[in-house]
Amino acid sequence: MKLYDSRRAPNPRRVRWFLAEKGINDIEIVDVDLFTGQHKTPEYLKKAGVAQVPVLELDDGLSISESIAICRYLESRYPEPNLFGCTPEETAVIEQWMRRAEMYLATPLMMAVRHGHPALAALETQSPDYAERNRADALKALNLFERQLSTHPFIAGDRFTIADIVAYIGLDFARMVKFVVPDECPHVQHWAAQMKTRPAASAGV
């Protein structure tokens, strides 16, 4: 298998972290240069179907895009350690928090970076107002995660899951626009500090 990757984008980082948590090391990593438009070439689009990373190319030629879809596939191929849920109930709760992490936190922060960091003007027709609205939405969403983390050590409950990967990478990516977790969210601060120390976290940088 081959993973088409970019160190400049946050979503491929989810997959690299996921691979490291599971100890998967038999997938070839292919770097895609976003700033030269390599992801928009006819050759890449024929393989990937979309001008984005990451994309996982299987041995039979099938390509899977979208970071969560890739992680779900890898979970089925490499089931341990489990990161998506062991029972129907746990799976549903993890899915719930993963989607909240992506929709309420990670995506707004990514938009804040894409529309707010000068270096990304090469990739985006930027809107500073849009960046600020998304930044404000993410800041507001932190209250939800603060309440959850005040009673649980991890985003989806009592153990590390894909929801933690999605949430933390979104927050860490936003350092590019100097987004910080406010002191009013001490549990989020503590959780983020713990995420940073995980051995697999360095694989996602």
List keywords for this structure.
four-stranded mixed beta sheet; alpha+beta; 205 residues; 4 strands; globular
Q: What do you see in this structure?
A:
The protein is an alpha+beta fold. It is built from 7 helices and 4 strands; from the N terminus they run E-H-E-H-E-E-H-H-H-H-H. The protein has helices at residues 10-22, 42-48, 67-77, 88-116, 128-149, 162-173, 186-196, and strands at residues 2-5, 28-31, 55-57, 63-65. The radius of gyration is 17 Å and the shape is globular.
Order of helices and strands: EHEHEEHHHHH
The termini sit apart by: 21 Å
Radius of gyration over alpha carbons? 17 Å
Q: In total, how many beta strands?
A: 4
Q: What does the overall shape look like? A: globular
Helical content, roughly? 40-55%
Proportion of residues in β-strands? 5-15%
Low-confidence spans: none
Q: Specify the number of helices.
A: 7
Instruction: Give the strand order of the largest sheet, numbering strands 1, 2, ... along the chain.
Output: 2-1-3-4
Structural class: alpha+beta
Mean pLDDT: 95
Can you summarize the main beta sheet?
4 strands, mixed
